[in-house]
Amino acid sequence: MANPSSATNRIEVDGHQFDLGNRSLAALLAWLVPGAGHYYQGRKSKAAMFFIAILTTYFVGFAIGGGHVVYASWVPNDKRWNYICQLGVGVAALPALVQTNRLRGFTDERTGQTRASYEPLWGGFMAPPRRPVFEDNPDDVAAWYARLGAGYEMGTWYTMIAGLLNILVIYDAYSGPLSTPISGRRRDEEEEASEEADEEPAAADDSSAANTAPQAAAAKAGKPVGQPAS
Amino acid sequence: MLSISPTYLLYYLPLLVAISIVYGGTRHEDMGAILRQALHTAYWVTGFMGIIFLILMVIGWWV
Which residues of chain A does B23 touch, with a Cβ-Cβ cutoff of 8 Å? Predict the structure, then answer.
């Protein structure tokens, strides 16, 4: 069995050295609770940053959606595909599965209708709407839309985006930061090149001034600066 | 010009902050570099959406 803290898991980024530890465990923790994987790896500042950014987005969305935007459902007229994205935040979205399982037990398989005796757990927290759901019908979903308006849509988006953002965080816990975008790297190189060109001897006489432009151009092209063209 | 209340645009700000910070955080390890990347991302996203907004506005005005 591989040593989870082997040297191959030790990386350096931006001058910071850290051990990714057991990467699979870190990824699992990162999924369960945003930032937990980073905390396990000792990257505590980033852990706190991810925890706050993702869970704040998730719970703000949950609140403006009236607490009904996160639920699991895959029945005709109510295929809640959004939940796949919301599931990215881990534990915070899992109660929806418990609620769905409970609703299934109270739904008639033949008619697809929820029995009148059904009462969701925890006051309806993350509970799916009663069955069946039809468009233009005065069912639970219609009531949520009517009561919350744009808040229901925005809450759905917020919670989905929080889940999707956590996928980036899981990746970061598993294998470290993604590479810097090419555009950013290129600009840095250009800035360095222009700085090098500016540092060319300012005290040079006028005759050398004619060579400055070609040198700067050569520097931008990544060639050594200050050497005569051969 | 806008078919919704401008206050709806406020929903955009928390999302922009969260997305920028997480995006920056998954590309750097140093806090300064993360914040710089986040700022760059925020500018980029806002600029991109602004351009899309202008294009849609012109199309709306045209059609």
Answer: 168
The parent domain of residue A86 ranges over 18-178
Q: For A67-86, how does the pLDDT look when each residue is reduced to its tens digit (9 = 90+)?
A: 999 999 888 778 899 999 99
Is A185 in CB contact (< 8 Å) with chain B?
no
CA distance A150 to chain B (A): 9
Determine if the pTM surpasses 0.80: no
Same domain, A146 and A106: yes
What pLDDT, in 10s, does the model give residues B14-36?
Answer: 999 999 999 999 999 999 999 99
Does residue A3 lie within any of the structural domains? Answer: no
Same domain for A66 and A35: yes
The CB-based long-range contact list for A35-44 (8 Å cut-off, 24+ gap) reads A35/A169, A37/A169, A37/A170, A37/A173, A37/A174, A38/A169, A38/A172, A38/A173, A41/A173, A42/A18, A43/A18, A43/B29
Q: Is residue A12 part of a domain?
A: no
